[in-house]
Amino acid sequence: MCTLQYAPVLLILLTLPASVVAENTDMKRITRHLYLDKYPVKPEAEKLIVGTIHPHDKSQFQLPFFYGNRLSLWKILQQAFPDDFGPELTVNSILSFLQKHRIAMSDTIRECIRTNDSALDKDLIPTRLNWELIDQIRQSNIREIFFTSGFQKNNAFKLFYVDILGMKITKEIRKNREVMLSPHIFGRPVKLTILYSPSGAANRAWAQTQIWKDNQHKYVDSPTPLQDFKVDYYREKFS
Predict the structure, then answer these.
(1) What range does the record give for the signal peptide (predicted)?
(2) Fewest beta carbons within 10 Å, which of 5, 61, 62, 97?
């Protein structure tokens, strides 16, 4: 399994000019995950949020935690659960929320090479996946895993379902944005759900989704209908 894991990456590196590899190393474009070992999945966790890997430049993070660069996930959860967070977002308030709701955090990539300054998934080369996540899930009470990105190159669900679990994404999974795993994988049924993005930059994409079109009528009197719907969506997922 390890040979297969690294083979595509090694092939890419071997075909790159030495100057390109050296330049990436010299410019410190190798990103190593800062939080996976500090915040492992706890045995009592029942839900899990999984992404890819944080951006490279940690000096730009607003908080030293998962999704701490722009806080879009935490801001929408703070709106959905104001009593659990309080007025200020801090690492401690986030950890308190996660503990109360038995939610764990993780990512699919432990180490990657950045091909440029972008933080986009498509612009990185995974060099080490988070294989430890399999045993962490098995040793927990997790029954649902939420992914913050879906089916495209290096997206969280694709890396977990295809690269880590070795399974194939079907048309039905793409359509439903969810799938139930057989109990033989983790010792119990585990539901995988691909979240719609909490980011404000994704509002245009949200507006085209069937789930929004089916619920739009409920928010006709709201001054911020789409935002209110997003808050309700995340509240329902993590209650």
Answers:
(1) 1-22
(2) 62
Long-range contacts of 72-75 (CB under 8 A, 24+ apart): 72/197, 72/198, 72/199, 72/200, 73/49, 73/148, 73/198, 75/198
DSSP the chain: -HHHHHHHHHHHHHHS-HHHHHHHHHTT-EEE-SSTTTSPPPTT--EEEEES---S-GGG-SSSSTTTTT-HHHHHHHHH-HHHH-SS--HHHHHHHHHHTTEEEEESEEEEEESSS---GGGEEEEEE-THHHHHHHTS---EEEESS-SSTT-HHHIIIIIIT-----HHHHHHSEEEEPHHHHSS-EEEEEPPP--GGGHHHHHTSHHHHHHGGGGTT-SSHHHHHHHHHHHHHH-
Query: Global pTM?
Result: 0.86
Residue-level pLDDT at 27 = 52
Mean pLDDT by 10 residues, the chain (239 residues): 46 43 54 97 98 93 96 96 93 98 98 89 92 98 97 95 98 97 98 90 84 94 93 95
Burial level of 6, CB count in 10 A (0-12/13-18/19+)?
middle
To the question of domain 2-195 being in CATH 3.40.470, the answer is yes
